[in-house]
Amino acid sequence: MGAGVYFVSCSLIRGAFFRYFFLNLYVILSLFADLGRQGVLRFYGVDSSQYMYAYYYTDCLLTVTLFVAVTSLASRVFAELNLSRYVRFVAVLLLLGTAGFTYAVVAQSTELLATRFAVELSQNLYFVGLVLTYLLWGAVLKLQETRTRLVQMVLSLGLYFSAYAGSYALLNLAPQYEVAKYLAPLLGCFLPISWALTIMRYSEDARLTPARLVAVPR
Amino acid sequence: MSRKLGALALALGILVGAMELKTLVTAHSNSVVIMANGVSPLPKLPPPQN
Questions:
Q1: How far A77 CA lies from chain B's nearest CA (Å)?
Q2: What is the pTM of this model?
Q3: ipTM value for the complex
Q4: How are the residues of chain A apportioned to helix, strand and coil, as percentages rounded to the nearest 5?
Q5: CATH architecture label of A2-205
């Protein structure tokens, strides 16, 4: 939670709040979601239906916001090619497509349709975000993007998604190890911390040399 | 027009790729879900579909 407050504070101090609005929105919503979840957890306990609903509905909202944040970064990467409009078009199609696909999958369920839908939509959007982030990584390399902040934020997102996929694999391969259960919550701090460090260390005008992005074999 | 069709094809490609990746990953899982947001502990899953 402190990591989120740190990132939003850094954004405000460095005047980058509105420039990276959706990233800030995601972190702020994440803070409120964590506060709400902790409140419900304290009152009803981890095994209660109330906590289950609170957790999965807030998670769905956060995943949609994270997806919008990834799209906003993609829009900035492609802005110089005048493709921002198409990036937004693709994002809307992806969101609608994922929602439609998810509904088709869970429509057979006769009870708790909304909760199932929230869980499945969150899962599906996570994978769409993962693929989108890797494509964005590729675009950053291919276009030899030099804006340091943008590159580091995209790299952070890629690392975050990869680390989650890794922790998920660990949870499935070695469920008996307690550490695997705590890995995912720990990773929740990674994104705001890495974004905050990027905002604090680099100005908007900072540029990378392309040679640092791609190791050219000699 | 062709750019819009390209965008549509790209969106479909990403969606299909993502769902295939999900199927590949979750086919060998023990019904644990990936939850990528926040630091709160995972609750129980909602009852399975009928």
A1: 16
A2: 0.87
A3: 0.81
A4: 80, 0, 20
A5: Up-down Bundle (1.20)
